[in-house]
């Protein structure tokens, strides 16, 4: 929870008592590898903080899975569009290893905001994170080669290549695993 405290105090300039109030509402839940945090068709009622483990978010089309995000330790995790709209999500979030999440419910977080507008800073911070990541990924598909998208992935998620399988990374990049192997080999040769 130290990373979450740093967000409150260092990044947002909030007070320790606000962090303590927020963290007192957090509940933890453990997910086994391949267990789902949320599945397509359900409404997201939480914002979570990955205290340990790793997850992937993916959508399905005609039985094919397409990874669209990863959540590693100290990440904020949510099916955020569903959370904001309170409509069913079109994505799945699956644990890629045994994972622990500390989460706050939609109702609890909104009650905090009603009670103390300073919690809007945290809400904006969370929205900004999801928005910026979505925009960067979308733009990278329009402007960048697969090799450039891979480099951006490494910058966005330092150390991801040791934590996430090549199959899932390739899916995130929109390429086949064989293409990822070629890109990595060419990058290695050209260094």
TrEMBL record:
CDD domains: CAP_ED. SUPFAM superfamilies: cAMP-binding domain-like. Residues 13-113 form the Cyclic nucleotide-binding domain. Gene3D superfamilies: Jelly Rolls. InterPro entries: cNMP-bd_dom, cNMP-bd_dom_sf, RmlC-like_jellyroll. This is Crp/Fnr family transcriptional regulator. It comes from Flavobacterium cupreum. The lineage of its organism: Bacteria, Pseudomonadati, Bacteroidota, Flavobacteriia, Flavobacteriales.
